[in-house]
Amino acid sequence: MRVVITEFSAITGIFRFIALFIVFIIVLVLAFYFTKWYANSGLVKKGYGNIQVVESYQLAPGKIIYIVRIGSKFVSIVTSKDNIVKLTELSEEDIELDNTSVMPDASFKEVMGRMIKNKNMKDDEKKDER
């Protein structure tokens, strides 16, 4: 009877590790570019802008009230775990639209910069109060 013993040297293990690491990096790069392409392809975008959630407020865990713009009409609805209930239609005069919070085409870096700046300002105000 022959016993076959395979020996792996440390160098072979290192080469295998490096090869697997390179494959891992390639998969990460491909996933990054695929998700970037998919997001910009237009397949993700929903509808043509006729339906928009204007505002939402959580009433209780799992129960949220929404103001939704559908076309040119505004509707208030309540959603829960099991159902959706239409409350009423609202006129545009009944709603106070805050357009300052909308940041179209803002980059992540700009948004994070604003958030950090606002946090620092709030921290400074708290220190002044003490």
Strand count: 4
The share of residues in extended strands comes to 15-25%
Q: Extract low-pLDDT stretches.
A: none
Radius of gyration: 27 Å
The tally of structural domains comes to 2
The residue fraction in helices comes out at: 40-55%
How many helices? 2
Terminal CA distance reads: 85 Å
Query: How do the SSEs run, as a string of H and E?
Result: HEEEEH
The structural class is alpha+beta
Largest sheet: 4 strands, antiparallel
Mean pLDDT: 83
Strand order of the largest sheet: 1-2-3-4
Q: What shape does the CA trace take?
A: extended
List keywords for this structure.
130 residues, alpha+beta, four-stranded antiparallel sheet, 4 strands
SSE diagram, text form:
Layout lengths: L9 H31 L10 E10 L2 E8 L2 E7 L4 E7 L17 H22 L1
Antiparallel strand pairs: 1-2, 2-3, 3-4
Describe the structure.
This protein is α+β, with helices and mostly antiparallel strands and 130 residues long. It has two domains: 1-45; 47-123, no CATH class. It has helices at 10-40, 108-129; strands at residues 51-60, 63-70, 73-79, 84-90. The N and C termini lie far apart (85 Å). The mean pLDDT is 83.
In short, what is this structure?
Strands 1-2-3-4 form a 4-stranded antiparallel β-sheet, with no helix packed on it.
